[in-house]
Structure formats: C-alpha cells, structure tokens
Design a protein that fits this description.
Layout lengths: L12 H19 L9 H16 L7 H25 L3 H25 L1 H11 L4 H33 L6 H13 L6 H29 L2 H21 L5 H13 L4 H5 L6 H6 L3 H11 L6 H29 L5 H29 L4 H15 L8 H13 L9 H15 L5 H17 L6 H15 L1 H30 L31 H17 L13 E7 L4 E7 H8 L6 E3 H8 L3 H12 L6 E4 L10 E4 L9 E3 L8 H27 L1 E3 H12 L7 H13 L3 E3 L6 E4 L2
Helix pairs in contact: 1-2, 1-3, 1-4, 2-5, 3-4, 3-6, 4-6, 4-7, 6-8, 7-8, 8-10, 9-10, 9-13, 14-15, 14-16, 15-16, 17-18, 17-19, 18-20, 19-21, 19-26, 20-21, 26-27, 26-28
C-alpha cells in the first residue's frame, strides 16, 4: 500500500483511508478485548507510512486537512457506537468503574492513533496552529461523554464519599482514578474539576457537617465534641491524600472548620460544665491543647479562648488576694509575725499560680502571643492590689528580704533561693509601681548589709543582676553601690585597726567598727546631734583622725541611729553583756555616774526629741528586759517618771539583745517615692518639650505617661500639677492663642 522511492504511486483519499480504517478497526478490537492479535512493527510502519505519503503528495493530492478531520471522526464514531452506550447502561459505582475502564482505553487509543498520524503533528498541525492530535482525542471524550454524564458521575462520587464518612469501606483507588479524569479532561486548567465536582462536593460537605454539628452540640460535652471535630478534620485530610486533588484541602477543611467550630464557637466554649472555664478549672491540659489546636485554625478563633483564659487567671489571682486579706483581718494587730508569715505564703501562692499558667501558655497554647498578653494583663490586675495595707511592691520587697536574710524561717537550698528570686523578678514586670519596690527593697537591703543580716553575698548580687536585666541599670545603680560600699568598708576597717595598732596613744580603749557609706547610694536617715558619752566621743575623734589620713575632701556625717553597742552591765547576781543600739547605750551610760535620773534630765543630757527618748526608755524599762526601773511603775512613759538602774535584774543568758521597736518607715518610703516621682515627671516633661518645642496638652500627657510607665503609672492630675509648676518656673509657657498648647522656653 505505501509505495517507496521516487516513482511511488499516488494514493487517493478513499483508498488510503480504507487502509487506515482497517488499522483503526484492529485497534478498537484490541481495546474491546476481541480476539485480535497485537500490532507488529511491520503493520505499524505501514500505517505510519501511509499517512506520511498522503501528507507529502503534491497538491491536489496532499490530504493533510482531510486526514486531520478523519482522525477526529474516528474517535467520534467509536465513542458514539461503543463507549457512550456502555457507560450509560451502568449506574452508580458500576457506572464509575465503566467510565474508568473506558477512559483508560481511550487514552490508549489516543496514544496509538497519534503515533500513526504523527507526521500531521510534526508539520501540518504546527504550521497551521491547530489543536494537537492528543488534545483532539481528549476533547472528543470530554464533549461527547464527559459533558453528558458529569452530573451523574459527580452524584455517584459524593454518595461514595458520604458512605466513607459514615464509616463504610469504599473503593478509594476507583475514586482516585475517576477524580483524576476531572483533572485530566480540563487539559491544562482545573476548571472541570472545580466547576463540575469540587463546588458540589464543598456544598455537600457543608450540609453534611451542619447536620452533624447541630446534633453533637446538644448531645456532647465540649471535650467529646472537640475529639469528634478533630477526628473529622483528620479524616478529611486523609481523603485529600487518598483521592481528592491537593488544591481541595484548604477549601474542604475550611468548610468543616466553619460548620463544626466557627458556627458553634461561643456555645462550645461556654458549655456550663465542660466549656473553657471548666477545662481551666479542672486542669484538663490535653483538652486545652486540643482546643488551642482546633480554634487556631479558624479566623480570630483564639480571641475568645484567650479572653476566657485571662478572666480565669484574674479570678484565681483575685481570690488569692481576698483570701490573704481575710486572713490578715482576722489576725490580732499584735500578732505581726503571723501577718508577715501569711504575706510570705501569699507571695509563694502567687509565684505558684504564675508558674502554673506560664506552663499553660507554653505547653497548651504553644507560646502564642495572645495568651502571653492575656497572662500579663491578668497578673497586672491582681498583682497591683495590696493586702492589709501593704502594697504589692512592699510585699515583694519583704518576700525577698525574708529569703535573703540570715535565720530565714524557710530552709531553702541555694538553687531554691535562686529560683525564687528569678520568679519574684518576673512578677515585678506586672507591678506598676516599680519605683516603690526599688525604695522598699533598698531600705531592706540596707538593713541586711549594715546589721550583717545578709545570708549570702552571691544571692544579693544575683538578684541585682536579674533586676538590672528586667528594669535597666538605673534601677539598680544605687543598690549595687551599697553592696560595693560594704566591701570597701571592710577594707577601711582593716586599715583603721592597723592605724590604731601603730598609734597606741590614740587607742580609745573600746573595740570600734565603723562602716563608711556613700551618701548618694543609701536611703536617707535622720541624724541627730546626740550628746554622746565621753567614751563614745573619744572613739569618734580617733576615727576622724584616721579618716583624714585617707582623704582630705570627704566629710563624715555620723548616723548614730544605725549603730550598735555591746556593753557589760554589772547586776547583783552576775555581769550580763547587753547588745543595744547606740542611743540605748548612750542612755544607759548616763547611769554610770548617778543612780537616779528624771525624764527631763535624760532628755536634756541626751539632746534627743521626746518621741525618741520615750521609745528608748520604753525599750529599757517597760519591755521584756527591765534594765531600768521606773517610778511610778507602769506600761507607758510620762514626763514625770523617774528612772534608776535595776541592779536586781537577772536573766539565764549571759548575753542578751534588747530590741528597740523600729519606727514604721512605710510612710517615709512612700513620701520619698512621691518626691522622686515629682522630679521624674518634671524631667520627662522638659525632655519632651525640649525636643518638640510646641505641644498640645493631651499629647504631652500621653508621651509623659508612656516614658514613665516603665517605672510607675503617673497620675494625670500629678502631671497637670507639674506642668503648672514648670510654667511658674519659666520652663514652659501657654500658647497665647490656644491655652491647651505649651511652648518650651529655652
């Protein structure tokens, strides 16, 4: 049939096509599984050469266009005669199986015929920009079969998917093949898959899960509902991996999440005995993890969860505050130690609460920023509430003092102390009055350092490092200076002892230890020009002489209120060593020269205020150790009292410490902090105005609050007052045209 060489015979269309029809008929028989032997290479070459010759003959015998048309007609004939009837007579899953078989056969037919007609593809189709042979074959299937049966196919596919959702076993491989037809039939686009199947599947999925959710929300507890929702999402994901197209995954999961979670979020989270509050209350960690995992998938789904978390933590913390308040109000005023212990317990409880919910944020809520914010805002609410008149800043400072000083009632290991300090510093982040904490802490640090009450220098330095990291160098600079001062003071003391040893004529005959402090670092202490006994005056003079050899430019101010003395008191039964303050010692030494002294004589000789003298006399004549006896006897001191040395006093101990009731410094601390705040507000306003020159009142106040909020929350009224003060001091002036605008005066 296919002649070769220069003198080959011209093949006319009818003759050539008749030969090709035989070849196509053989291919159809093979596909229909009729008893037809396969193509051999000779037959294949004859078919290919026939097409080649018919396309390369000189016009008018070039039949390229006619062959191109007949190629399409061959598919159309086969589809109409054999394929479409075979598919249409089947239904449901059987129809899908038939469709799958026919599609696979069709692709084989396209592959073989496009090889026979390959010469058309190479030259004629390329030059004319016609549809390639492979695509012509697929388009025939699409237009003649797919368009006719796609509705039934789609319905059958959705029925199978829903059967699987209900737990039935289905032929996933068949579904995969059928859904691939929707993709392949679109040639290079996903239009057929999306418009003819996916849209309907998504609509059906919405309806399916809508019904499920309506039932589950009534029947199930929140944890059970979430387990079902999680399982559904997992199954839908598997569905995509087994037979749906990967592009369907986000759309499908969004529909399921919307129906199961978004539409019922409020009802689910607020279920009375099993919702979010109940899970938090009962520490259902796994359920909370599941809740986070599910609700993080829906738009703004975590907001209500984080709000509930915040409310729950706030309530827990507020309950602890109330509990501490109630305990404190039930204690009698004289039992201060008990109140102090309960305040200590309260801080431990707050630390434990913080540890617990930090772990929740990290483990259950994967460290999400919403939950960090919720935790911060919750702790800021109750961490800024006081307990029985003590602010949270004072409570934290007292807590630190209790675990850092010697004789701590809680026997903690070094690691436990470090851990506790770390946690207190974390809590400090929630306190708005950080400057108040700093002042209380500094007062207590001073007492630990000066009275040798600090248990461990390493811990002292460690917490200062932590505070510095949290609040900045300015926050701790004075405290670090105090610790350094003590180290230098020890060096001074050693040098002083060497000086006295070298100058024996100056030896005061009393063992003297002096701690030299830098005024700027330490809290301010009242200094009184007390009339010291001669023994003490000599000590002061000797140290002054020594200090002048060390420096010429520094002035010493003696703070006797912080001093202590060890004096020997000779009673009738035995001599007892008394550990007293410098003031108490000065008072007792008055009785070395006389037996009796009236109240007014003591005031005159000591040169102290009445309040201080009353405190001293009360500690020595009315408290536990009655070193002085007074007339008339009684529990209080009056200006008419007369005192004498109680020689009959005795005690089983050979060394006793006589406490002097401390002055309540809380009021002074608050006053000092208020004063510092005034300076801080002034500095902030001047700084802002210096850079801006002109500024509206509200803007200035807002910037001032923002600048200062790291240390304390300034009061708007206080800022207004400071602005007025700066105006009177000519730092600022009001704008002539607008009274709410200020100008900076350089």
């Amino acid at each position: 049939m296919a002649g070769q060489g220069q003198d080959r015979k011209t093949i006319d269309l009818e003759e050539g096509w008749a030969f090709m029809e035989n070849g196509i008929g053989k291919l159809v028989n093979i596909l229909e599984e009729k008893n037809e032997p396969p193509f051999n290479s000779e037959t294949y070459m004859m078919l290919y050469t026939t097409i080649y010759n018919m396309c390369t003959q000189k016009p008018p015998n070039d039949y390229s266009q006619q062959l191109y048309d007949k190629y399409r007609e061959a598919f159309e004939k086969y589809i109409r005669d054999a394929v479409l009837p075979a598919i249409k007579e089947k239904h449901d899953e059987f129809m899908l199986k038939q469709l799958n078989t026919r599609w696979k056969n069709h692709k084989v037919m396209v592959r073989w015929l496009s090889r026979f007609f390959h010469y058309l593809d190479r030259y004629f189709i390329t030059r004319r920009s016609l549809t390639p042979l492979r695509d012509v074959g697929l388009i025939c299937f699409r237009d003649l079969i797919f368009q006719e049966i796609k509705g039934k196919v789609k319905d059958a596919v959705i029925v199978l998917i829903n059967q699987e959702r209900e737990g039935e076993q289905i032929d996933r491989a068949l579904l995969k093949d059928v859904l691939d037809i929707f993709v392949e039939i679109g040639l290079t686009t996903m239009e057929c898959y999306e418009n003819d199947l996916e849209d309907f599947l998504l609509k059906d999925t919405t309806e399916y899960y809508s019904v499920k959710a309506q039932n589950w929300i009534v029947e199930d507890s929140c944890p059970d509902y979430m387990i079902k929702a999680e399982e559904c999402l997992k199954r839908e994901k598997e569905r995509v991996s087994h037979y749906l197209h990967i592009n369907s995954e986000p759309k499908l999961l969004e529909r399921v999440q919307n129906e199961l979670l978004a539409n019922y979020a409020t009802q689910l989270l607020e279920k009375e005995h099993s919702g979010c509050y109940a899970l938090l209350r009962d520490d259902k960690v796994d359920d909370l993890k599941r809740m986070f995992s599910l609700f993080s998938k829906i738009t703004r789904g975590l907001e209500p969860v984080s709000n509930m978390f915040k409310t729950h933590v706030t309530n827990e913390g507020t309950a602890l505050v109330k509990q501490a308040e109630d305990s404190a109000s039930n204690k009698k005023p004289e039992k201060k130690e008990m109140v102090g212990m309960q305040e200590q317990v309260f801080v431990w409880k707050i630390i434990a609460l913080h540890d617990k919910y930090v772990a929740y944020v990290t483990d259950c809520f994967q460290g999400h920023t919403l939950f960090h914010k919720a935790l911060k805002e919750a702790f800021e609410v109750f961490c800024n509430k006081g307990v029985s008149g003590s602010s949270s800043a004072e409570l934290l400072a007292t807590f630190c003092d209790n675990i850092l000083k010697k004789g701590c009632s809680e026997k903690l290991s070094d690691e436990a102390i470090e851990d506790a300090l770390e946690k207190v510093v974390r809590l400090l982040a929630y306190i708005s009055d950080k400057d108040l904490f700093a002042e209380f802490y500094r007062k207590k640090l001073a007492r630990r350092l000066l009275f040798d009450k600090s248990a461990n220098d390493e811990h002292e330095r460690s917490i200062l490092t932590k505070l510095k990291q949290q609040c900045g160098g300015q926050f701790t600079s004075k405290m670090e200076g105090m610790v350094t001062d003590l180290t230098l003071a020890r060096d001074h003391q050693t040098k002083f002892e060497e000086f006295v040893a070298e100058h024996q004529e100056l030896n005061p005959g009393v063992d003297l230890a002096v701690t030299v402090l830098t005024t700027g670092f330490w809290p301010t202490y009242k200094t009184f020009e007390i009339s010291l006994p001669s023994e003490m005056v000599k000590c002061v003079e000797v140290f002054k002489e020594f200090y002048q050899t060390r420096t010429k430019h520094r002035k010493l101010t003696w703070i006797y209120s912080l001093g202590t003395c060890n004096i020997n008191a000779k009673f009738d039964t035995k001599t007892i060593e008394l550990i007293v303050t410098t003031y108490q010692a000065a008072l007792l030494l008055l009785f070395n020269g006389v037996d009796r002294l009236s109240y007014s004589e003591i005031v005159t000789q000591l040169n102290l205020s009445d309040d201080d003298v009353v405190r001293l006399l009360h500690s020595l004549s009315c408290a536990k150790y009655k070193i002085l006896s007074k007339e008339p006897a009684g529990r209080s001191i009056s200006p008419n009292d007369v005192f004498e040395f109680n020689s009959k006093f005795t005690d089983r101990m050979r060394r006793i410490k006589i406490p002097l009731p401390p002055v309540d410094e809380k009021k002074k601390v608050v006053e000092d902090v208020d004063k510092d705040r005034r300076y801080a507000i002034d500095a902030s306003i001047v700084r802002i105005m210096k850079s801006r020159k002109v500024m509206a009142h509200t803007q200035l106040v807002a910037e001032c609050v923002e600048q200062l909020s790291r240390m304390f929350k300034p009061d708007f009224k206080a800022i207004k007052k400071r602005i007025e003060d700066l105006i009177t001091r000519d730092y600022l002036e009001r704008d002539k045209d607008n009274a709410n605008t200020y100008r900076y005066l350089a």
